[in-house]
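W.,

You were right to be curious about this one. When I first looked at the sequence I had no strong expectations either way, so I just let the prediction run and decided to look at it fresh. Below is the sequence, 68 residues in total, followed by the output.
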Amino acid sequence: MAIIVNLDVMLARRKMSLTELSERVGITMANLSILKKGKAKAMRFSTLSAICKVLECQPGDILEFSDN
């Protein structure tokens, strides 16, 4: 079971770089990179909310559950 992070997909759809997202959300590039690569163990709801606000999306657009 795994949670898949589709942050790179949403960034591409919004034509936004990771650097721009980092600046607009106020999260370090290192932390966003960990999240984007699916290496994060947890994410705060405040972080998810901020990302969704900037990318104008829903949490389900970023996070996906897979039982493979």
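Here's what jumped out at me. Residues 2 and 66 are 5 Å apart (CA to CA). And, maybe more interesting for your project: The longest strand covers residues 2-5.

Coffee later to discuss?

I.
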